[in-house]
Automatic annotation (TrEMBL):
SMART domains: ENDO3c (SM00478). It comes from Candidatus Marsarchaeota G2 archaeon BE_D. Belongs to the type-1 OGG1 family. Keywords: DNA damage, DNA repair, Glycosidase, Hydrolase, Lyase, Multifunctional enzyme. This is DNA-(apurinic or apyrimidinic site) lyase. GO terms for molecular function: class I DNA-(apurinic or apyrimidinic site) endonuclease activity; damaged DNA binding; oxidized purine nucleobase lesion DNA N-glycosylase activity. It comes from the Archaea. It holds the Pfam family HhH-GPD. Residues 113-270 form the HhH-GPD domain. Its EC number is 4.2.99.18.
Amino acid sequence: MYRTDSLALNTPLNLGVTLSSAQTFQWVRRGRGWIGATGDSVVYLLQTQNTVLFRVYGGGEWDPVSYFRLDDDYPTIIRSIGFDPIVRRLINSQPGLRVTRQDPWECLLMFVLSTNNNYKRIVKMTLNVNRAFGKKVETEFGVVHLFPTLESLSAASLQELVGCGLGYRSKYVLELARALREGGVDLGRLRGKPYEEVRSTLLGLPGVGPKVADCVSLFSLEKLESFPIDTWIRRVLAELYPHLLGEHLYRVLKDESKSLGVSVYQAISQKMRNYFGVYAGYAQNQLYYHSKKLIKKGFTRRSKS
DNA sequence: CCGGAACCTTGTTG
DNA sequence: ACAACAAGGTTCC
């Protein structure tokens, strides 16, 4: 059983770009659209010119306006971060890359899986976990599994998770689910808390470091000022924003043989929040998405200088 | 608090 | 063919 609905767009959205931009790892192409499991639903999405068609299986609620943050005032955000010529150019070159508003549990799990990993495998691992622990839902594309609940995952065994191909992350996922279930943290309640509190709370969870905490804050907990720093953003900053960093931080970023210490990470992300303002996360999203193009080095990096 | 190594697995590279 | 390396980092020492 399903219902079909459509949404007329009055704000830029590029569905495919947004869903495949590594903010989330639960959507796969099917036919001319995308299918994904989130909450109590399996959702199929199809974009035409100015319309999003969506079909919701499983009886749950799902709202594209919420998920794609179409309720944000896009012009205001663009104006806010568009003072930066690089970001402005990126947005103009391809409008419609949106920041998602995901379920915090799902987002947290997927980003714990994302550590020291690549997009394709993260998607595969997520689907494996869904298949092993999520309820089945019938769709016209066959049976699809829901995203597993916190409860079902906390009852998993380590071996089952290893069987999903999570590798050494299996232990983090299990500890994470159990830590949350023990009641230490209510993720939903974090939505209303300020950035610093959200960050420090998430950092206390197993498998969660500064980068994952920032991603979860940005993509599921309303912290639009969050500016996650991964290897690609690191290169973008060293390459295009050295003047913001200062001599010391620039040299630390530039030397990729070393990973970022916690204090360095914090210092840099703080600088970027100061620079871009309350919508720094939108700017980060643009810079990340285009990072491979922006970094000349990205194409020659393998030639081991 | 800081620096460095180890870490599952898969796909790509030379 | 096949060893080496990278992939949206975190943990442990």
